[in-house]
């Protein structure tokens, strides 16, 4: 159950990060904080997905 929650939170973080980055790109007067927050969430999502895949592989063996 914890692995499923990690998968969902990582995917959500990744998706929200992408939305923030795209919002910064298309919004004319967007603050730089939006880009920074989007990049942080995107990186956390990528790291979370990779560690979740590694942990799932470890548990299956």
Largest sheet: none
What is the CA–CA distance across the termini? Answer: 18 Å
Number of strands: 0
Approximate strand percentage: under 5%
> What structural class do you assign from the helix and strand content?
mainly alpha
Mean pLDDT: 93
Radius of gyration: 14 Å
Q: Describe the oligomeric state of these chains in a short phrase.
A: single chain
- Percent helix, as a range, is over 70%
Shape descriptor = elongated
Number of DSSP helices? 2
Give the topology string: H per helix, E per strand: HH
Low-confidence stretches: none
Topology:
Blueprint: H1 2-26, H2 32-60
Helix pairs in contact: 1-2
Account of the 3D structure:
- There is one protein chain.
- With 61 residues, the protein is mostly helical.
- The protein contains two helices and no strands.
- It has helices spanning 2-26, 32-60.
- The protein is elongated.
- The protein starts with a helix and ends with a helix.
- The relative contact order is 0.21.
């Amino acid at each position: 159950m914890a692995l499923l929650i990690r998968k969902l939170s990582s995917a959500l973080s990744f998706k929200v990060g992408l939305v923030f980055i795209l919002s910064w790109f298309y919004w004319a007067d967007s603050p730089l904080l939006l880009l920074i927050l989007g990049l942080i969430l995107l990186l956390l999502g990528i790291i979370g997905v990779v560690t979740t895949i590694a942990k799932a592989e470890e548990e299956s063996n």
